[in-house]
Amino acid sequence: MAYHTRARKLWADSLKGWLILLVVLGHALQWTLGDVGIDHNHLWNWIYSFHMSAFMAVSGWLAYRPEGESHPAGRLILRRAGQLLVPYFCWSVVLLFFSNDSVVSNVLNFVLCPDNYFWFLWVLFFIHVIFILVESASNRLHLNHTATILATALLLVAVMVVTEFRLFGYQYIAYHFIFFSFGYFIHRHAALQTRRWAVLLPCAILWLVLAWWWRMHDLPSWMPSIPGVPETLLVYAYRTLTALTAAFFLLNAAPLVLDGNRFPNSRVITLGQWSLGIYTAHLSYLTLLKQTSLLFAMKAGWRSLPDWLFVSMLFVTALVISLVVVWLLMRNRHTARLMLGKF
């Protein structure tokens, strides 16, 4: 069973729209509560347990091409570079104007430490590159696609665990390659597709339970350590299981509930189509607030407000400003290409 093209476009964009709303909300929480406060915030932990991994899974689902439909690897890579890498560098240059560091160190960090910038675009581009090359090689050598992709995923993770290599965003590439591949497999293999709520609802419950105890860098309090197994590895395993459960549920449930172009889903679909611009614009706005101390001034001026109200205000302003910025960039084909990857 494969979902038809129309359904794919509607539900996939709608799902991305909901996910980008969670991205903005998650950052509003983080900017308000700080790195210490968010660690015990269940809403933030729930959002971060799956949102970027789900984005990767949707991208992997869309990357699947039926047998016989092939394109030159070089052309595909160039297209992805225009869609992802060009906006990554253009928006990173924008951040130069808000940074206190030297221009040279910032430019080097664009490549060496992309996790300090718009890491999702960088990581998604290189996942696409690896995936395209692996797929091309498996075609030429007549290898099984699924086995080749699984072997590549295991190799990437093994290198990450053994070497603890952190430059060029490698740890993010290796980790999120798992979810990109999982989305691809769901589209490719009918065995991973289901429309039965008797299967989907227990999966959703399991995901919510796992997400309730999810922590960015720690194991759940109820989960014992295993002698001889590094705790970091167990944390990654728990995080991976939680995100895979969420991705399985979302990619199978979304075509059932988000396949419609009526209001309000039509507006959410637009958010999904603009998700790249919303992601980069809202991060730029929040970074501007932080770098210019405006965020601190806002907190000091409104310190009598409860955290939830301040988070709501920050979320709404970041979202509205992002939408205005994206709308303006879309007015010109050059800015749409450079900043939004609209090739």
Characteristic key phrases:
about 350 residues, mainly alpha, 15 helices, globular
Q: Kindly report the average pLDDT value.
A: 88
User: Using only CA atoms, what is the Rg?
Assistant: 20 Å
The general outline is: globular
| Strand residues, percent | under 5%
Q: Number of DSSP helices?
A: 15
Topology order in helix (H) and strand (E) letters:
HHHHHHHHHHHHHHH
Distance between the termini: 31 Å
Q: Can you put this structure into words, describing what you see?
A:
It is a single chain. The protein is mostly helical and 343 residues long. It contains 15 helices and no strands. It has helices at 5-37, 42-48, 51-63, 73-96, 103-112, 119-140, 145-163, 170-188, 197-212, 231-257, 265-273, 275-291, 294-301, 307-330, 333-340. Helix 1 packs antiparallel against helix 3 (51-63), helix 1 (5-37) packs across helix 14 and helix 4 packs antiparallel against helix 5 (103-112).
